[in-house]
Amino acid sequence: MKYPAGTRIRKTVEKDKKNIIYANRGMDLESDINQSNAYYREIDKALIYKKPTPIKIQEVDYTEKGKVIKKAYFDSPSTTDYNGIYKGRYIDFEAKETISSTSFPIKNIHKHQIQHMFKVEEHGGICFLIVRFVKEKKNYLLLAKDLKKFLEENTRSSIPLSYFEEYGKLIEDGYMPRLDYLKVVDKIYGGVLDGKKNTK
């Protein structure tokens, strides 16, 4: 496959594979997702980016090297971590880690983020939560609708690992991409994203 400028994508990807360091398997979730998104963009599979945190700058110093922010604060509550487009559909998700081996604390997601996720789904977007159970070395993708189901049917302050095992989908670790969550999205939506009927 070639870009308009004539760059061969295959050679770039193969070169990157050679530069993979096994120690990178210990990277945090955000780094893994950022690396995966960069790979998706590289092979022209999807355009997904991490949203910048909105800040308001109050004080700036001017140096020889340029401007240096001296004082700033968060301007407004951010929504979710990532958004973009995949196969013609808007995609939006939050990513979190937990050191608990048994559950994911709901307090780790802000209320406005949860409401945002529900709204994205209501408007036809693909929306989900990715949770990494650090000690278990497992990553799960939980759709917004299944998060909503849990919150409506439970009063507990955390989502048990068993719920992720039942309603979520395990995301396998890899190399290129590091965390192939779009493979899971494809499995969940079947042929719908390709304009085909879902036969499931």
SSE arrangement:
Blueprint: H1 9-18, H2 29-42, E1 47-50, E2 55-63, E3 66-74, E4 82-86, E5 89-98, E6 103-105, H3 111-122, E7 126-133, E8 138-143, H4 144-153, E9 158-160, H5 161-167, E10 169-171, H6 181-189
Parallel strand pairs: 5-7
Antiparallel strand pairs: 1-4, 2-3, 4-5, 6-9, 7-8, 8-10
Brief account:
The protein has 200 residues and is α+β, with helices and mostly antiparallel strands. It has 6 helices and 10 strands; from the N terminus they run ααββββββαββαβαβα.
Q: How much of the sequence is in beta strands?
A: 25-35%
What is the count of structural domains?
Answer: 1
- Text of the CATH class: Alpha Beta
Order of helices and strands: HHEEEEEEHEEHEHEH
- Measured as a percent range, the helix fraction is 25-40%
End-to-end Cα distance = 32 Å
Order of strands in the sheet with most strands: 1-4-5-7-8-10
**Radius of gyration computed on alpha carbons:** 19 Å
Derived from helix and strand composition plus strand pairing, the structural class reads alpha+beta
Number of DSSP-assigned strands? 10
